[in-house]
Amino acid sequence: MPLKKKISLVLLGSFVFFIFLEAGLRFGGFVFVSFQEYRNARSLAKKGTYRILCLGESTTANQYPPFLEQILNQRHTGVRFSVIDKGVIATDTPAILRRLRENLAAYKPDMVVAMMGFNDRRVAYYADIPEVRMPLFQYCRTYRLLRLLYSLLIKKRHHAPQPQDTHADTALTEDTREHNELLARETESKRTIESDPQNEEAYIELGGSYRQQGKFSQAEESLRKAIELNPQNERAYVELGRLYRAAGRFSQAEDLYQKAIVLNPKNERIYIELGWLYRTRGKLSQAEAAFKKAIEANPRNERMYVELGWSYRTQGRFSQAEDLLKQAVALKPLNDDTYGDRAYGALSVLYEETGKPGLARAYAEKAEGLRSKTPNALTAQSYQRLKDILDTQGIRLVCVQYPMRNIGPLKAIFRSGQEGVVFVDNEKIFRDALKKDGYNAYFRDAFGGDFGHCTDKGNKLLAENIANAILKKVFHK
């Protein structure tokens, strides 16, 4: 066979493989959102039901809502329930509120169940990325067409004009300001580039503003330009790696992190991001090595000790996990950032698993004490705004605390206005369950330190507790 024909066949085979690979990836993302919307459409099709709209992050999306509907309707209370799942992976409370008016108009709920706020200090790389967690999909014409057609079919029955709501407009003012700041940052970066086309830092800034606006292709283009201008700029590789990691392009993200490490082997931030990437892909030994490198680069950063400690706990290496988590809290026992309460919470779970309930309770109290000293103003403001909007439409609000977490801080948000709010406390019921069956029976991971994404068993327990609160406090059943 002539060489030219062989090359043509190889290229054709590569192209076909790429098409099938892309189709598989896109189908996966499409199925996740479509399955959620399909179940919502089925719930909406039921006539004469009491509608419950569930809001939250990844701990809500395709998690407890279907169990909640099933459990409520099994109680034979004389009321039929429809539960709508509008959880969004890796979102935060401002993003939830931005979609609120649209969701209220589309689904016309009688009640809103909200379990939200954990990501308000923790979302970094997914901020403002569209509802599908793989931004690359948003720029594929085939995928966008399928989503458009599907949306038209699903929303055809319940489309309604958006009501004028001055309270909602007021509630969205801050988010509008944040959006305007991103646009201003974008404009300033473009001006800098116009006057200095060789300024790679301006391209990095522009890429960051695009990323936060969910403009994936523009962000990628800007960051690649920064690398082209200065291949020695490690920050450009890291930023592009973050973008690819958010898009699920893990191999490319890994390559970029490795290039950044070559440029600056003492940057602990690169190692910890690489460790997260490996752990996401199930490469635990490589994740462990990356976290160790991070500690070596900066022994004073407690975050690396927490990450490595929890990796050891996942492998059943409890003694090593305990040592590292203790080092984390010793470094900054009054830390008010992301990892302070996580270290205490992780130690609490670890001691519970190893049969030391006294220590488990003590560290749980320390974690709660730290959280109460450092309340998240953004979360509090979002919950208050949510209640104000719902009050104007006569919609009941149910506030759910995360599993294992104390209900006190959530109640404190509404200290002067708890009227009509139903609170769901999930601390004791989950702690008792874990004592009996172990952590892994109820959680698939531990992103929160002392809790994580629920297994089916965990979601059923969560849904049952929410259902009990709703039936008792709202329907008096």
Poorly predicted ranges: 123-152, 154-175
**Integer count of domains:** 4
> Biggest sheet, open or closed, and with what strands and sense?
5 strands, parallel
Strand content: 5-15%
General description of the model:
- This protein is mainly α and 477 residues long.
- It folds into four domains: 24-163, no CATH class; 174-263, Alpha Horseshoe (Serine Threonine Protein Phosphatase 5, Tetratricopeptide repeat), CATH 1.25.40; 299-396, Alpha Horseshoe (Serine Threonine Protein Phosphatase 5, Tetratricopeptide repeat), CATH 1.25.40; 422-469, no CATH class.
- The chain is 63% helix and 5% strand.
- The chain is built from 21 helices and five strands.
Can I get a quick summary?
With 477 residues, the protein is mostly helical. 63% of the residues lie in helices and 5% in strands.
What is the element layout, followed by pairings?
Layout: H1 3-45, E1 50-56, H2 65-74, E2 81-85, H3 93-98, H4 100-107, E3 111-115, H5 141-155, H6 166-171, H7 173-195, H8 200-212, H9 216-229, H10 234-246, H11 250-263, H12 268-280, H13 284-297, H14 302-314, H15 318-331, H16 340-353, H17 357-373, H18 377-392, E4 396-400, H19 408-413, E5 421-424, H20 427-437, H21 456-473
Helix pairs in contact: 1-5, 2-21, 7-8, 8-9, 8-10, 9-10, 10-11, 11-12, 12-13, 13-14, 14-15, 14-16, 15-16, 16-17
